Amino acid sequence: MVDLSIIIVNYKTPRLILDCLASVRAYTEGITFEVIVVDNQSEDDSRTVVLAQYPEVRWFDMGYNAGFARANNHGIRQAQGRNILLLNSDTLLIDNLLARCVRVLDEQPDVAAVGALQLGRDRQLRPNLYTTFGQIRRAFYILPAGERFQNLLQRLIPDTQYADPNQVDWLSGAFLMTRPTTIAKAGALDESFFMYGEDVEWGYRLGKQGRILLLQDAQFIHLEYGSSDDNQQHVVTHINRFKPQIQVSQLLWVRKQYGVGAYLVLMLHYLLMVPIVYGWKIAVNLRDRRPLFSDLANQRAFARQAGIFLRFFWKTLFNRPGFYKV
């Protein structure tokens, strides 16, 4: 049995996979590993390009764009390693991180999953990465900027406190190593999620099986958004912080983990915010002596997002199995 099965989900990113695997080959030593690529109907030359350079890769085609959870679960079912790593195609190793994480799982049986800090293209630590459930939930609420409101949210939605500085609530699916035995107990990724949020929800179930560690002295490069052009085009504003798909998935996570009440509170918040953001902007226009309904693109975008959330309302409210794809 190999020490590690590396699972990479592909959607039109063959060149990124080549770079990723080159870094795996360059830096990994002391362990045996296999690479499994699961393709989400790329309909390009991905398979030919990757297998030409890495013929040992085990390639599987989903036959449709199955998203992150379903594709990774398919890879997990094919895996032959005694440890499993979910690894994004747009990642690069910079040292022997894989062997170190395998060692952590081998030497600390109470650890359910392990990951590392993410660096950007410039090799600087990526800022504002969430590690607790509380951080994510607080980010969903659109409140005026200022310490008073943030402190209020912090009291209402506190963070989990751990004695170990490496322990966190969840790990990003860009780099998450665990064991097949742990997955068997926790369950696989929830296949109702298309993209985003599935790793957060999985972290909750993995955390019931043991500690989740984010090694504070270990790093990998996450280029980010290798297979998504619209991510790079998304303009982040105070009221439009997330793409619709991210928010639909995270609302599903809130419903699953925190129940109907928490979900309804968040939905009510968004619906009430629609007239508030319009009214605020109109008041600003009036103050500045501009046409009342000028420069409302940001507000319209927010209203459209709220409309998308409503499309999934009943399905999410009753936690119906399905495919929550925008």
UniProtKB/TrEMBL annotation:
**Where is each Glycosyltransferase 2-like domain found?**
5-130
Cross-referenced SUPFAM superfamilies: Nucleotide-diphospho-sugar transferases
Would the keyword Metal-binding turn up in this protein's UniProt record? no
What CDD domains has UniProt attached to this entry? GT_2_like_c (cd04186)
Question: Gene3D superfamilies of this UniProt entry?
Answer: Spore Coat Polysaccharide Biosynthesis Protein SpsA, Chain A
Q: Which UniProt keywords apply?
A: Membrane, Transferase, Transmembrane, Transmembrane helix
List the Pfam families.
Glycos_transf_2
Instruction: Please give the name of this protein.
Output: Glycosyltransferase family 2 protein
What is the native source organism of this protein?
Spirosoma taeanense
